[in-house]
Each structure stands twice: as structure tokens, then as C-alpha cells.
């Protein structure tokens, strides 16, 4: 009987083993996770969970008994230390060796941390990636405390929104000349800068961290412009690195993540990769898509392939972020855009930013605008690009753009 081992019990790993069973795979299935809890949602960690609005059990993707009921051997609090491609075995941290017929790597990504030389190892310095991170920092989120957020990407902005809502004094520093520069157009940066400043967040762009101050506990920060701040704790949100060490040591091809083909296979035909640790092809470009939607879709495609039905994976990128009362929804990838066209809604705070490469629609950022998000998503997935003048015209019936 074939044995499929999945290493990494996050969204991708949990989706893959569930899909294997739903499509009728009858072999042995083992899901290995380094954490002590069953697979859970990560996005709420920096939002509802940190706010205290979601209990831990509500984070779980499936009830714990689901895995036993489906004949899935769930191994928690377990790490894989090595892969032997020739023998088709993996070594576990407890000394056990397991044999696989198909191996899937769904290990996600690790948050970038600050080096010890600039105070990164001081007590009171946190990252946001897993449940233990959120649990460790949650007691700090009390009214009146002073927090420094390092990094103006979505994770940093979400943490800033939670802190502001809970009554903390929030300073956010972004080394680039604007927040969200790596992932969004200036128009989207402008929207969220105004949103956060309206909620009292002190956003400082073009300013980085020189070092954190303190002996054992962080007590302050010196910025690159010479400013010194008194703080009670710091949250680091400066991006992630794909978890590739295990794959690299096994001799698999590595690019921006573990390199996979159109079907999700790595450079070894018996090993696959999905989710944040894997790179894939999108419109002729090699990309690594950090999103829940991609983790689920890519993992489920691999499950179907393993079960015996060849299915190329075609990414349909979508993302979201919740900050205060704003829900941001993103469709597509804006890589290589040349122009951005803004459509504003009648209500305050309703806006969508449409990314074009010349005349081709690439992506849409929709702020409190779910209707135009869905229209944009359907247009992008259908390969259709309305004239930008229609998108920006308030009189345009956007739904009519979907008609043949």
C-alpha cells in the first residue's frame, strides 16, 4: 500500500491530506507537524485572535478527531531532520525513520528576525508567525503600553491596527520611502497611511531601526535618523523566508523557495512541494505566492496528482487583510504593472485600485469594495481587460463589464 508523508501541518498540509481522502486515495497518509496543536488558521493570529475575539479552538481547521476518523496519522510536536531521496526515507528528531512512496513538503515560511547585534534577542521583541508567537505577545497588548512596529507590510500594519484598537501608543517605522512598497502601488499605500494616522498610529517612512535598547528587556529604540523612543515592546514584521533548509540539504532544486513544475513536483519525481515554501509558474514567471488561497489550491492539486489524475496547477492569486473597519481584498498579481487607475465608491473609504500593464489588467486592490473585487477577480481569471476609462468612470455599470 502506498505511503504518502506530508511534512508541515499548516494550511497546505492539512488541505492536502483531506483532499487525498476525499478523492478516494486508500493508501497510508502521515501528516507531520512541528507544533503541539492540530493544524490551524494563521491569518487570524495578527487580527481576531490577538484582539481576543477568537478562541484557540476556533482557529483549528478541523476537529482533532477528523484525522483519526479519516485514517490520517497526525504526528504533532515532531520535526523532520533529514530526507534520503535514494532510500525514500525521512529521519525524525526522536530517532525514528519513516519510509515514503510520495513525500510532500508544506513547511511554509519563517519570519525574518533582527540580529542580536541590534537587540533582536532582547526580551519583549516579537514576531508574528505561529500560535506560540501570538500567545507570547498577547499579554503585552494592553492599553497604555508603547509598542514599536518594525516594518510597514501587511503583517506590521495588522499588528498596528490591533494595538491601536486596544489603546496602545503605536509607532511604526518603514525603511522604504512608503509603507507597502514591495507589494502595492502608491495609491494603496496612501489609503492605508491615512487610515492608520486617523487612528493615531505614528507612521514614519524612510526611517529604519538602528538598534533596540535595553539590557535584557527592550526599553527603547534608536532609529536611523537619530531619534530615540521609549517603548515597552517591539513587533518585527519585516517579511519571511521560505522554509527550504530541509529540501536544500536533500539536494532538491531551490530558487525563490523549493522549485516545482506545473504539477507541483520538485526536482525529485517522488517529492512535491506546496504553499509558502514552494515556487511555481505564473504567466511565464517563477513566483512564490504567500497566501492561504494558494496554499489550499496548490496542495489540493498535488493531492489529485498523487491520487492518479494529472492536473497542472494554475495559480489564481487572491489575498486579504483586515485593518480596523477596512477589509482589503486583492485579486491577481501586480508584478510588472505600468499604470494604476482608481475607482472611488460613493461611501467614504470605498475604493478600488486597478493595476494595468499597458492595456492588460493584472490585479485589483479593493478596500471595503467586495463587489468590485469580485468583478475584478472574474475579469482577471477570464483574461479580460476593460478599458481603464470605463473602470474610473463613476457612471459605468461594472457588472456589465463581465458580459461577453
Descriptive labels:
alpha/beta, five-stranded parallel sheet, 11 helices
Overall description:
The protein is of the alpha/beta class. 24% of the residues lie in helices and 30% in strands. The strands form seven sheets. Strands 3-2-1-7-20 form a five-stranded parallel sheet. Helix 6 links the parallel strand 10 (146-150) and strand 11. Helix 1 runs parallel beside helix 9. It is globular. The N and C termini lie far apart (49 Å). 42% of the residues are buried. The model has no long low-confidence stretch (mean pLDDT 96).
Strand content: 25-35%
SS content category: alpha/beta
Please estimate the helix content: 10-25%
Q: Kindly state the number of beta strands.
A: 27
Question: Could you provide a short overview of the structure?
Answer:
This protein has 404 residues and is of the alpha/beta class. The protein is 24% helix and 30% strand. Helix 1 runs parallel beside helix 9.
Which helices and strands occur, and which strands form pairs?
Blueprint: E1 3-7, H1 11-22, E2 28-32, H2 48-51, H3 56-59, H4 64-69, E3 72-75, E4 80-84, E5 89-92, E6 97-99, E7 102-105, E8 109-111, E9 125-127, H5 131-137, E10 146-150, H6 154-165, E11 169-174, H7 186-198, E12 202-205, E13 209-213, E14 220-223, E15 228-230, E16 233-236, E17 240-242, H8 245-249, E18 254-255, E19 257-259, E20 271-273, E21 278-282, E22 285-287, H9 292-306, E23 318-323, E24 326-332, E25 339-344, E26 351-357, E27 360-367, H10 370-381, H11 388-392
Helix pairs in contact: 1-9
Amino acid at each position: 500500500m502506498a505511503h504518502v508523508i506530508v511534512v508541515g501541518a499548516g494550511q497546505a498540509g492539512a488541505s492536502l491530506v483531506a483532499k487525498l481522502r476525499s478523492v478516494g486515495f486508500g493508501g497510508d497518509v502521515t501528516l507531520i507537524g512541528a507544533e503541539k496543536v492540530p493544524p490551524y488558521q494563521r491569518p487570524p493570529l495578527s487580527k481576531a485572535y490577538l484582539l481576543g475575539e477568537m478562541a484557540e479552538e476556533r482557529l483549528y481547521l478541523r476537529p482533532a478527531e477528523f484525522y483519526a476518523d479519516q485514517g490520517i496519522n497526525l504526528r504533532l510536536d515532531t520535526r523532520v531532520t533529514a530526507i534520503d531521496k535514494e532510500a525514500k526515507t525521512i529521519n525524525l528528531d526522536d530517532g525514528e525513520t519513516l519510509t515514503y512512496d510520495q513525500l510532500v513538503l508544506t513547511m511554509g515560511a519563517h519570519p525574518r528576525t533582527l540580529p542580536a547585534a541590534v537587540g533582536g534577542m532582547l526580551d519583549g521583541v516579537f514576531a508574528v508567525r505561529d500560535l506560540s508567537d501570538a500567545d507570547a505577545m498577547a499579554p503585552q497588548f494592553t492599553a497604555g503600553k508603547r509598542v514599536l512596529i518594525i516594518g510597514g507590510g501587511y503583517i506590521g500594519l495588522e499588528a498596528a491596527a490591533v494595538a491601536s484598537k486596544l489603546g496602545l501608543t503605536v509607532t511604526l517605522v518603514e525603511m522604504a520611502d512608503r509603507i507597502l512598497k514591495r507589494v502595492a502601488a502608491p495609491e494603496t499605500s496612501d489609503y492605508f497611511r491615512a487610515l492608520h494616522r486617523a487612528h493615531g498610529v505614528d507612521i514614519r517612512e524612510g526611517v529604519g531601526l538602528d538598534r533596540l535598547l535595553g539590557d535584557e528587556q527592550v526599553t527603547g529604540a534608536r532609529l536611523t535618523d537619530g531619534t530615540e523612543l521609549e517603548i515597552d515592546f517591539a513587533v518585527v514584521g519585516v517579511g519571511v523566508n521560505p522554509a527550504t533548509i530541509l529540501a536544500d540539504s536533500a539536494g532538491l532544486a531551490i530558487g525563490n523557495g523549493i522549485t516545482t513544475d506545473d504539477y507541483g513536483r520538485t526536482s525529485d519525481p517522488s517529492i512535491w512541494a506546496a504553499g509558502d515554501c514552494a515556487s511555481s509558474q505564473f504567466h511565464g514567471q517563477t513566483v512564490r505566492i504567500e497566501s492561504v488561497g494558494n496554499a489550499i489550491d496548490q496542495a489540493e492539486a498535488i493531492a489529485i496528482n498523487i491520487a492518479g489524475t494529472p492536473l497542472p496547477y494554475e495559480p489564481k492569486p487572491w489575498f486579504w487583510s483586515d485593518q480596523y473597519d477596512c477589509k482589503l481584498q486583492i485579486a491577481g498579481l501586480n508584478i510588472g504593472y505600468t499604470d494604476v487607475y482608481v475607482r472611488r465608491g460613493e461611501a467614504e473609504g470605498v475604493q478600488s485600485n486597478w493595476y494595468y500593464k499597458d492595456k492588460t489588467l493584472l490585479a485589483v486592490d479593493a478596500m471595503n469594495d467586495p463587489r468590485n473585487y469580485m468583478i475584478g477577480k472574474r475579469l482577471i481569471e477570464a483574461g479580460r481587460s476593460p478599458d481603464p476609462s470605463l473602470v474610473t468612470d463613476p457612471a459605468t455599470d461594472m457588472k456589465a463589464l463581465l458580459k461577453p
